[in-house]
Amino acid sequence: MPISPTSAKAADRLLTVDEALEGILSRIRPLGAREVPLLDAIGRTLAADVVADRDVPPFRNSAMDGYAVRGADVATAPVRLKVIGAVAAGAMPERSVGSGEAMRIMTGAPMPDGADTVVRVEDTDNADDVVTVTAATTKGVSVRRAGEDLQQGTTVLPKGTLLRPAEIGVLASLGVPKPLVIARPRVAVMATGDEIVEPTEVPGPGKIRNSNSYSLASAIWTAACGPWMRPVVRDTPDSLRAALRDAMEADAIVTSGGVSVGDHDWVKPVVSEMGRIDVWAIAIRPGRPLAFGELYSSQGAFDAGPVRPRDPAPPSTPGHVGGRTVPIFGLPGNPVSALLTFELFVRPALLKMSGRTKLFRPRAQAKLLDPIDKPAELRLFARGIHDAAAGAVRLTGPQGSGILRSMSLANCLLDLPEGPERFAAGETVTVILTDHPEDH
User: Full-prediction pTM beyond 0.70?
Assistant: First the structure.
């Protein structure tokens, strides 16, 4: 179908940030589930409840190196007890402990019958035949109960749990070598523009190095997804069509550049030709030229294995006869705008695709140290440095959408709503804590 750059006309109405985000998230579905090796599960989301198959620990054991005794024998000190043997971790005690007796015991070793307390070795003379306990010890001290950590039959990790290092350890303790998790999204990332060269090249006249693909791929990685770097796409519709067809093997596509209304901005018309555009003009600064839509494919999902294919596109869509949809995010070409719109719109969508339910960074209130002017009709996201101890925030410096250093210096975004044209120093503003993970 012939297209022209005029098909990327300006929108009749700008969507609010909240409207755009709601529209994007409403089109995103979690990927299917698959079993993966335990160490590959870090950062993924459980797709099924995990139930304890046994108590953890499975037996009473010592929390200290010392002597297993009866608590009644060590309620006062000093006291001398007959040492009747020893038990190490991984072994079983050969007899029970009676009144006036003690058994040497190592950390993690099973408690002998009759003993209910462990006297730490530092509170004894460390003797092998008759030990002197030099400090009174409370009954039950340093004994771990069976099932103290996990009890058999209980749901330990519910479906939807984000697997962090502690959860990986819990799964290992329960004997789950291959947990069932939501598949990790594979995200194609590509920059568009005749002016772009790779970082290994010396830019000629009118050329710039490709920073967007690398910063966006890194942002995709920190969202626990797999970035798939694609070659730079030149400013022709044929180049973009071919690049998008290849990229449709991924679970989502992120492009930068080519989303405005210039003569060489082809993302919107080409995506409209190959699928649909849902969002493409937002009342935001920076990042106003942004596109979100879907490409339609009759091919199966990329990631081989027991993964549920993506939901098919609506059957009423012209020219689409089944298959799956691939979300595409067309981000602005300016480096700050690209990273900022990724943070606000793409990251939550990828987290949802990964099965996560907590999609948004934490927020805080802070006293503004620098005055800020903004257009009344736009929601401004300024780059800032948040001092949590002082409850204050200041700008990183110049806020131009091409000044990538304003992002590298920032640990937060100032979220300044539509309406006011000026925020004075001393006012309280909302900040998004971009260095903090989403609440798990």
Answer: yes
